[in-house]
C-alpha cells in the first residue's frame, strides 16, 4: 500500500494491482494527489471479455484521497 495508516502518502511504497493475471497488461503511477491507471487486453487472452477490445489501451484516474477513503471505509466494514 502507498498510504500510512494516518492517511499520509508514502514515498517508499508502490501500488500493487493484485495477483498476476495474464489476460491483461496493467500499470499504475501516481503523483501526490492522483493515481493513473492503464491496462489493455492481450490478443491471446484466455477468458472472453464483453467490454474490452484486444490491444486497446484503456486509461483511468482517481484522486489519492478518494481511494484512501474507500480503503478506510472497507476496513471499517470488515473490522
TrEMBL record:
<protein>
    <submittedName>
        <fullName>Uncharacterized protein</fullName>
    </submittedName>
</protein>
